Amino acid sequence: MNFINLSKYIGVMIIATFGTFFFHEMSHWIAYELLGYDAGFTLNGASVKDASITLTKAHRIITSASGPIFTIIQAIVFYFILKKYENIMLYPFLFLPFVMRLGATWANRFQPNDEGRISLDLGLNLYTISLIVVAFLLFLVFKISKKNKLSVVLNIITFVVSILLILSLAFIDSKYKIRFV
Known about the structure:
Elements: H1 3-34, E1 39-42, E2 45-48, H2 57-85, H3 92-107, H4 114-121, H5 128-147, H6 152-176
Antiparallel strand pairs: 1-2
Helix pairs in contact: 1-2, 1-3, 1-6, 2-3, 2-4, 2-5, 3-5, 3-6, 4-5
């Protein structure tokens, strides 16, 4: 991959990162709204606007699951697109969901997030659902990497840039709290 293609690839990664996070959080927001809550979302979070509201266990599971479900669907859709078309520029749309959910799994140690909350609400270990989701997404990434003969170097570059972009997005969200709703 030459410099021009690498810069285009990183540009696509930026779009994939912001798009993946935006639609993941929007999915949480949609779930809250469909359940009758007045909610909002930022680049890296969604919640009811009235912090005094306590959700039922069922509503917590539904609203927690909605974001990861969208993210898994995104990965599956791009897996099949990449399986058919082998367009490397679309690879970040499969890879980002994996890194995003891997990071969320790690972040469970500080405060349970989507899959962690679901696991706890179901009486499972904090990491159970997270590890299932990450393993599935890694499987999709591995299968496409193997089928499309994507190099280890490309995967390392994609991983490192993904981490940097996700950290940048989290920083921007924490500093500016740009609310979409």
